Amino acid sequence: MIVIDNQGDGDTGSTGSANILVWKEKGAVGLVSAGGVRDTDEIIRQKNPVYMDLTKRGRGIRPGRNEIESVQKPVVVGSVLVNPGDMIVADGDGVIVVPRSQAVFVAEMAQIILDSDKAARRDLFEKLGIEKDFTVE
Question: Which of 48, 84, 98, 125 is close enough to 72 for a disulfide, judged by CB 3.0 to 4.6 Å?
């Protein structure tokens, strides 16, 4: 997962669809950005997971404006410290950062909660006579 602290970029899109494809080629599975991202239509078509503040979509490319300051160093995104090796869990509702030292515990607890939620929703689908969706099977 690429995690970028680019909050101070203003209205520029620090990264776009081509950047994300290059990172995907190198093994990245998604992007978390504190600042602007451009080419969102292409990113969606490419099925690249990108999590960002939707109010910070970048308007245009400005070649030469970005420099890599560091790699594998801690960054702060959305007021959250992200260390190299932390687990990033994201969906349409948001992004969480799980310190590597807590990842197994958090995953075990999340599985318990998910199993309970699925069972409760499955029961409600049946009681309401609604066809079950893929999330409860």
Answer: 84
Q: Are 132 and 119 in contact (CB under 8 A)?
A: no
Structure tokens at 14: 């620090």
Enclosing domain of residue 116? 99-137
Question: By the 8 A CB rule, do 78 and 51 touch?
Answer: no
In this prediction the pTM is 0.58
Query: Model confidence over 98-107: pLDDT tens digits?
Result: 999 999 999 9
**DSSP, residue by residue, 10-27:** TTS-SB-HHHHHHHHHTT
34 shares its domain with 81: yes
Q: What is the DSSP string of 63-120?
A: TT------SS--EEETTEEE-TT-EEEEETTEEEEE-GGGHHHHHHHHHHHHHHHHHH
- Name 91's bridge partners: 94
137 Cα distance to chain centroid:
25
**Number of domains observed in the structure of the chain:** 2
The rounded radius of gyration (Å) of the Cα atoms in the chain is: 18
| Amino acid of residue 58 | G
